[in-house]
């Protein structure tokens, strides 16, 4: 692997870490309804557990209500049970074929708990980025040991990798701050 390939690989993997972090942030509950909140709910469908999005249409009715429209008639009760038994603390209500999932208002204590969770997720993402930096630097040092790159090239590559790391960590910090503001907004 060349220095250019190492740099390209580490930047791509750091971008993937940011993408995974963004998806984890979407699952953290704010005061507003968000269809992504129900992505973790599994519904029993013909003996197998499948994600809710594969058996129903999930959409927003308003800022505090999610609607779940099952694609098959008999699934309403199973979906309602799966949402109720999930660890999200939601209480769905059926209105004919439509299942309405109102988002209860969050207490100040719960909001603070959610901001702590967002910070924890951010710290995990930063650790992943730093681990990628370490792996890239080790790969560069191996090239130098194998005499496939000079020490000057090593220093330049490590500087570039550090720039990628700094940029990605700054992006993670910005995402955490934005999520905290979203959670604390009443």
TrEMBL record:
HAMAP family: RRF
Native source species: Verminephrobacter aporrectodeae subsp. tuberculatae
Domain Ribosome recycling factor: 21-184
NCBIfam families for the chain: frr
Family designation: Belongs to the RRF family.
UniProt subcellular location: Cytoplasm
InterPro entries: Ribosome_recyc_fac, Ribosome_recyc_fac_dom, RRF_sf
Ribosomal protein as UniProt keyword: no
Protein name in the entry: Ribosome-recycling factor
Record's keyword terms, sorted: Cytoplasm, Protein biosynthesis
One Pfam family, short name: RRF
Function comment: Responsible for the release of ribosomes from messenger RNA at the termination of protein biosynthesis. May increase the efficiency of translation by recycling ribosomes from one round of translation to another.
Keyword Cell division: no
Superkingdom assignment: Bacteria
